[in-house]
Structures are given as C-alpha cells and as structure tokens.
What does this fold into?
Amino acid sequence: MVVLTGESLSLEQIRQVCYQDEIVAIGAESMERVKKSREAVEKIVAEKRTIYGINTGFGKFSDVVIDERDVNSLQLNLIRSHACGVGDPFPEVVSRAMLLLRLNALIKGYSGIRPAIVERLLELLNLQIHPVVPQQGSLGASGDLAPLSHLALVLLGEGKVFYQGKMCATSEAYEKEGLVAIELKAKEGLALINGTQAMTAMGVINWLEANDLAYQSEWIAALTMEGLEGIIDAFHPAVHAVRGYQQQVDVAERMRNLLAGSKLTTRQGEKRVQDAYSLRCIPQVHGASWQALDYVKEKLEIEMNAATDNPLIFDDGKTVISGGNFHGQPIAIAMDFMKIAVAEFASISERRIERLVNPQLNDLPPFLSPQPGLQSGAMIMQYSAASLVSENKTLAHPASVDSIPSSANQEDHVSMGTIAARHAYTIIQNVRRVLAIECICALQAVQLRGIEKMAPKTRAFYEDVRKIVPSITEDRVFSEDIERLTEWLKKNNWQWTGIKRHVSLA
It folds into this structure.
C-alpha cells in the first residue's frame, strides 16, 4: 500500500501504483489539513469576501463578482467549458498517474476542496476507473486546464473512462461500482484543474520508461561491442575518473561488468588502435544523457509534491494569495532537456547499427545477410532506424521556447510543457525501436562471431532475447521482429531477470 501525504511521493511509488496496481491510502494528518482548508473556504463564502476563483470569474473574468447563489454553478460551468481537449487520449497509465498526482497535490491542504472530492479521487484510483483525457489542448499555464477538466468531468459523472479493459461512459462505470456523481461547491472546480498534473504525469511515465531504456541501451551496446570485437580499454576506470563525471564513470563500470569474461572484445592494438566514437565514447555520450535524466528526476520529484493550485489558502483562510504556481515552466524545460537526452541514445545507437551492417566498416557478411545479394538481411532495418532518429531531431526542438498569449492577454506567457512531455513520450517510443533494431543486428553479429565466446552476462541476455527474435536464416518481414522485441523491452524494462541474476545496477 502507498500512503499519500502530499509531501513524500516518490517515483518508485508511482511505478508501484501505475504499473503494479498498488492500493493507495491517504494519511490521517493530510485529511485533517483538507478539512481545515475547506472550512476556510466556507468561511470566506459566508463572510462574502471577494476572492478569485471562489466568487469571481476566471482568467480575464477575474474582476467579475459572482452572486452567492451562483458559486456552485460557476464551478460546473468552469469544468464543462474548459473540457476542450482534442486528439487521441493519453495512455491509460498516464491517466492513472494524473489521478494520483492531483490527489497528492490536493491533500497538501492549500486548495480548499471538501474531503468528498479527495475520497472520490481515491476511489477512482483503487477501483481503476481512469479518465479518458485528450492529449492536445493544454498551454501549460494556467496549468493543464483542458486535460484536468476532462479528469474533473468524471467526478461529475460525465465524460468517458477506461474501465475493465475498455473505454466507456463514466455513468456506466459508476453504475457498476455503485458510485454517484458529485456536485462541485465553491472553488472545487478550479482546485481540480489549476495545476501541472497532466504534464507531470506524462513526465513521470516518461522518466520511468527513459530510465529503463537507458539501462537497456547499455546491455544492447555491450552486445554490439562483442559483435564488432570492440576495444575494452576505452572503458578503463582511469580514463573516466580523470574526466570527473560520475554518470560517465558509472556507465563505464557497468560496461566493464557486462563484458567481463568476454573473448569477443579486444585490446588496444590487437586488431586496431582505436574504435569509432559510437563504441569508444559510449560512457561519455550515455553518461551525459544520464546527467540530464538525473536533472529531470529532481524536478519531477519536486513537482509531484508541489502545491500548484491558484489561489492558495494559508493561515486558515486569513491569507489567500493569487500566484502562479500553476505555471509549467520548470517541467517544460525538464521535458525539453529529456527529449534531447533520450534522443541521443537512438542517435548513437543508429551509428552502431551502421557499423554492424556496413561491409566497409567490418569483416561481417554485408548487411548480416545469410546470402548477400540474393537476400538483403538487415539492410533496411538501418533505414528504419535512420528514419526514427531523423524524426526525433524534429521532435527534440524545444517546446518551452514558444509562448502564445491567451485569455485576452491576461495569461500572456505560457509554458507549452504538456507539448514537451508528449513529444518526449514519442521520442522514447522511437528510441526503443531503434534499440530493438540494434539488438537484432548485434544478436546476429555475435552469433556469427561465436556465442560461446561471449561474456556470461551478455550470453544470458542473448539467450533470453533469442526467444523473442530468432536468428536471421533468410529474409522475412523484419517489422514483426522489431515490434515484438520493442514490446518485450517495454514490458520487461531494465528489470530483466538476467540483470538481477548477473549484474548489480546499484
């Protein structure tokens, strides 16, 4: 069970909730904060104080005072009017993360919502009723208004949800689970949608997948090192210690660990003096991407436990401040950084693929073909990898450098953080396919060299992957191999059992 406090949610806990369906609970102290915060809102309404979002309009309408009789209608109108998301829905795992993060933010006790709202979000999580949230339509300030409005619709019994393996009307899921729609009270609609939980939810799923992918890239690069009889000296600890980057040192150590005992790697001067950069510089390039991933992790862990509502309620309602914590710039920049970092795993991988298939760069059969000329072998797999790498270069253009004013220039600078997060997700999927292609080529190369000469760890990995992708004995529809291996990599992630059997990644 994962107990939320609003202060200490971790990425590992998100992995447990989103990928392992862990049950979620709320800490008692957090619920007390929620109750006190709600009492403050009710006091403000009773005293007829004019506070943004409680009894005023929104955005450019912030100067319009709303009659006390209409404050509930104000919240309902807000959700319905702001549910303008378009396009394909976020993956269901992202929707689940969105629920979790919004719940964690609300229980910090600065948003003024009723315990009933918190309890419903908790029920949705534990019953696995996940909002269908269109991906497009958020500017990333004032938070993720459109996506979170689609999440809020579900509390009203409206919209659509993922439920029991299918997409259906929220009302259908509610009927089966015996739930009734909630009527929003003062401030609750705004509290549900003013935040960065769509971009952050997409961001944490991105990071979890990218972290796994980064480890996988090292296993696959180790196979390529053996397939090309790479020079192991490039990973000597002294080389990396004098550079000073810990992530580079760590990659080099893991590469030495993976390749320990291999009779396929060579020493400096044995077959050649030095390797091409795509082999020799694996620790430097992969290590730099790890540095970026560490930065992204730090920002996500802060944002996951942040109060991103507006206005925020302090001192039992004595102090209510309209600020800008909903602005997604910290996550927007982090996601743009992630895009560049993850794209590089594919960029260098594609260059290793070229070295595996190009007969001018190795002594293997051209394109690893079983009958060069009659059969093309891996020739076009390299084309696919090059195409994906090129697409990533376009997607890696930073979204955060753009801003378009909205709400009649009241909201005149926005983050585009959700666009950055969505593009990062696409890059990650592309990178996984490129790595799958490298893996298929490297498997064939080491088989030609002699698998009995492989390191114990890479040999174990080889045996497992060969169950997914058979040897290339004749041309076939390689798209099916690529997709099958891609799916295997995604499901197994870096926690492939062989890692625990054969090497520590601590």
In short: Confidence is low (pLDDT under 50) at residues 496-506. The first strand starts at residue 2 and ends at 4. The first helix runs from residue 11 to 20.
